[in-house]
Amino acid sequence: MNTKDMTYSEAIRDAISLKMRTDEDVFMLGEDIGVYGGAFGVSRGLIEEFGPERIRNTPISESGIAGAAVGAALTGMRPILELQFSDFITIATDQIINQAAKIRYMYGGKGKVPMVLRTPGGSGTGAAAQHSQSLEAWMAHIPGLKVVQPSSAYDAKGLLISAIEDDNPVIFYEHKLLYGMKEPVPEDLYRIPLGKAVIKKEGTDVTVIATSVMVHKALEAAKLLEAEGIEVEVLDPRTLVPLDEASIIASVSKTGRVVIVHEAVKRAGFGAEIASVIVESDAFDFLDAPIERLGGKAVPIPYNPELEKHAVPQVSDIVEAVKRTLQRGKEV
Amino acid sequence: MAKEVFMPKLGMTMETGTIMKWLVEEGDSVTAGDIILEVMTNKINIEVEAYETGTMLKILYEEGEEVPVNQVIAYIGEKGEKVGESANPKSEKDSTSEEPIEIREAKIEQKADKPRATPSARKLAREHDISLSVISGTGPKGRIHRKDVETYLANQVSPSNAPIDDISTAKELTSAAAKAIKVKGMRKVIGDRMQQSFSEAPHVTLHSEVDMSEAMRLRGQLLPMIEQKTGLRLSYTEIILKAVGVTLRDHPMVNATLVKDEIHLSAQIDIGLAVSHPNGLLVPVIREVDKLGLADLTEQSKTIAQAAREGKLLPNQLQGGTFTVSNLGMYRVDQFTPIINLPETAILGVGQIKERPVGVNGEIVLRPMMALSLSFDHRTIDGAPAAAFLTQLVETLENPAHLLI
Predict the structure, then answer these.
(1) Maximum distance among all Cα pairs of chain A, rounded to whole angstroms
(2) Which of A31, A82, A131, A216 is an active site residue?
(3) Which of A15, A35, A312, B125 is 20 to 30 A removed from B260 (C-alpha atoms)?
(4) For chain B, domain boundaries
C-alpha cells in the first residue's frame, strides 16, 4: 500500500473523498464548508470535486444542521456534518440526544441514523472559553451514540471511514492543535474498527492512558522518563464508545500502575469512567499504586495564553504523575 | 449472642501472637476463668482464660497459626448458636471488655493500624499466605507495595535456607542419621526478628579495644563488698552495663528507638542483656541502669538472668529496652558483630578479656585487653556520633572513676 505524508486534516479530507467517490449516499453539510473549506480548512477543495449538491453550505444553525442530518440519515443517506467548534454542540444536542441516539431503538431497528458529526474540540489556540472546550464526556454518557477521538492522521482516516460506514450516529471529535500534524498515511481506503485501542508505545512500569492531543504529551513525557529508566506504556483508547476495556485491563495488569490524562475538565471527565473500569475489573488485583487522573482544571478556558496552558495538563504534569505512582516524586 | 475471643494484646509492642495449643475443642463447654488456649509471643508462652461462660462454638485459627492482636480467634456462645466464620480485624479493643459486639459491626469496623497495602501487594501476600502485618511497607504512610512483599519473600526463602519442612520430607536427600527440627515457637520468633533486623536496618559495626586493667582493679575491690551485701559475685558484665548506662546519658541518639518514621529519644536508659537459654536467645531488660549502684545492678542482673534461664520471665521484662549488651566474653571469642535488637538503635558486643602486647609510652607491655563491637542502625545515627559514644565508653572503662562522677 502506498503511503503519503498527510496532515491530520488532509487525512480526514482523504477519508471523506474516498467514501464520497464510492458511495453516492455520503454527503457533507455544515457552515462555510464549500468554497471557504470550513472553519479549519478540512473540506477545502471538496466542493470543486463533488459540487454544491454534495458539499452543502448551511445557515448558521447547529440545531438545523443536526436535524437535517438526522432526517437525511433516516431516509437512507449517510451525512457527514461539520460543526465549526465542538462548543456549539450545545445547540445541536436535542437533535443528537433525543433523536439521533434514540430512533433506532424506539423503532425496533426499522429506522437507523447512520450519520457522522465531525467537530473540533480542545484548547491551545487562544480561542477563549466558548471555543476551546472538550465536551466528549457528555456524548459518551448517551446510549446510542458512538464517540471517537483520533489522535493522529493515520487513526483519523481509518476511524472516519469506519464511522461513515457505521449504521449508528458517531460523534467524531477532532482536535484543533492536531490538524497540522503530519505522518505517513496509506493512500488507499483502510479501516480502523471502532472500539479498538492502540498501544502507542510499549512499556513495563506505568500505563499512561491518554486521549486526543494528550497522547502526544504522554509520548513526550514517556521519552523524558525513559532517560531516567522508567518504561512508560502509552495507550490511546481512540474511541470512548465503544471502549476497548480488554486492552486497558491487559496493559494495567502488566504494569500495575496507571495515569489517565485527558484535556477535558477532570471533574466528571471520562477519566473517571476509565478508572472505574479498571478497579471493577480483574486488573484491580494488579494495581500497585493509586490511580492518577489528570484533566483540565475546573475553570472556563482562559483567554490569556499563559493561563490557557495552565488550565490543561502539560508534559511536566504527566512526568510528575508517573513518578508519583512509582513513589519517586515529591510526597503529596 | 456469641461472644468473640480475641488474640490478647499482652504488651505494648506485641503485634501478633502464635496459637500454641487449644485446650478446648469446638463443642466443649467453658466457664469464665478456664484456660482455653496457650499463646506464644515475644518468646513467652501465655495461658489465655475465657472471659465468657458457654460453649466453644467455633475456633477460627489452628495451632501454630500466627494471628494479629485483637483479631477474633474463636466464638463462645450458647450451644447450637450459629456464628459467622469471618475473622476480620477489629478496632483496638481490650479483649476483657464485656460489651457484646455484633459480628456484623465487626466486619465494617476499621482497625486503626490496619496495614496499608496495594491490591497487588495484597494478592501476592494472599497467594503466599503471609500476614501483611509482618511486612514493612516502603510507600507513603508505610503503604506496602508488591515490591515490599517480594523483598519479604526473597528474604524468607533463599536457596541456602530452604524451609526445614521440605528437608524432612525429602528423606532420600538426607542421610539416615540426619534429624529435622521444625522451626517454630521461640526459634521462629528469634529467626523472624533477626531476619527483619538484618534486612531492614543498615548495620554498621565499630570495633575498639579496652585496656581492662583499671576495671579489673575496681572489680577486685568491690567483689568482697558486694558479695557481703548481696551474696552475689560482681562480674564484668555488670561493670560494662554500668559503664554503658552512664555513657548513654551523654549520647541520647544511641539510646533511641526508631518507630516508623520517627526517632524516639528514650526517657530512660533500659538496657537489654542477652542471655542464653536452652531454647534460644532471650534479652531481658534492666531498667534505669545508669541510676543503679553496682550492688543493686549485680542483684538485678543476676536475678533476671536466672529467671531467663528458668523460663520465668514476665512479658514486660522482655520489652521496652533502649539498648542491648551481648557478652560472649566467657567464651574464647575475641570479637563479633552483633545484630541490632530492633527498634533499638545499637547493640554492644563484648569479647573475652585476654592479655595482649600493647604499646604504652613507647614500650611493649602485656595488658588485659577486651574488644567492644558496637553495631548501630545507620538510618537513625551516623558513624561519628556512634564512634563518639564508643570512644567515651572505652575511656570510662579504662578510668572507671568516671562512674563515680
Answers:
(1) 61
(2) A131
(3) B125
(4) 3-108, 119-188, 203-404
Which CATH number is correct for A3-186, 3.40.50.2300, 3.40.50.970, 1.10.357.140, 3.40.50.300? 3.40.50.970
Candidates B274, B276, B386, B278; CA nearest to B321 is B274
Query: Is the pTM for the entire model greater than 0.80?
Result: no
- B196 in contact with chain A, both atoms CB, cutoff 8 A: no
A247 pLDDT more than 80: yes
- The average confidence (pLDDT) of chain B is 82
Q: Which pLDDT score, from 0 to 100, does residue B168 have?
A: 42
Structure confidence at residue B37 as a pLDDT band (50, 70, 90): confident
Handedness of CA A67, A73, A76, A79 (dihedral sign): positive
Class of domain B119-188: few secondary structures
Question: Around Cβ A231, how many Cβ atoms within 10 Å?
Answer: 14
* Chain A residues close to B122, C-beta within 8 Å: 285
The percentage of chain A sitting over the pLDDT mark of 70, rounded to a whole number, equals 98
The stretches of B317-382 forming alpha helices (DSSP H) are none
Contacts of A286 in chain B (CB under 8 A): 119-120, 123
Mutate to test the interface with B, among A285, A288, A323, A326 (most CBs of B within 10 A): A288
Chain A: nearest CA to B212, how far in angstroms?
Answer: 51
* Each residue's pLDDT tens digit, A42-93: 999 999 999 999 999 999 999 999 999 999 999 999 999 999 999 999 999 9
pLDDT for B178 equals: 64
> Cα(first)–Cα(last) distance of chain A, in Å?
50
Q: In what order do the strands lie in the sheet with A26-30?
A: A55-57, A26-30, A78-82, A116-121, A170-175, A146-148, A239-241
pLDDT band at B193 (very low <50, low <70, confident <90, very high): confident
Q: Which among B265, B218, B267 has a CA at the least distance from the CA of B240?
A: B218
Neighbours of B364 (CB within 10 A): 8
pLDDT per residue as tens digits for the range B232-264: 999 999 999 999 999 999 999 999 998 888 898
What pLDDT is recorded for position A69? 98
Is the pLDDT assigned to residue A198 strictly greater than 60? yes
Q: pLDDT tens digit string along B84-127?
A: 544 444 434 444 444 443 333 333 333 446 788 999 999 899 88
Ramachandran area for residue A161 (φ above 0: left; ψ -120 to 50: alpha; else beta): alpha
The interface predicted TM-score of the complex, written ipTM, equals 0.74
Q: Who wins on pLDDT, B72 or A217?
A: A217
Round to whole Å and give the CA distance between A20 and B124: 56
Superfamily of domain B203-404: Chloramphenicol acetyltransferase-like domain (3.30.559.10)
How far is it, in rounded angstroms, from Cα B320 to Cα B329? 25
In degrees and rounded to multiples of 5, residue B331 shows phi and psi of -100, 175
Task: Report which of residues B47 and A42 the model is more confident about.
Answer: A42
Which H helix or E strand runs over B209? strand B203-211
* Whole-angstrom distance, CA of residue B404 vs CA of residue B299: 19
Q: Does B146 touch chain A (CB under 8 A)?
A: yes
How far is it, in rounded angstroms, from Cα B370 to Cα A132?
Answer: 80
Question: Does A62 qualify as catalytic in the annotation?
Answer: yes
pLDDT score recorded for residue A6: 97
CATH of B3-108, one of 3.40.50.800, 2.40.50.100, 3.30.360.10, 2.60.120.10: 2.40.50.100
Using CA coordinates, name the residue in chain A closest to B122: A285
- Domain extents for chain A? 3-186, 198-325
Q: A198-325 architecture in CATH? A: 3-Layer(aba) Sandwich (3.40)
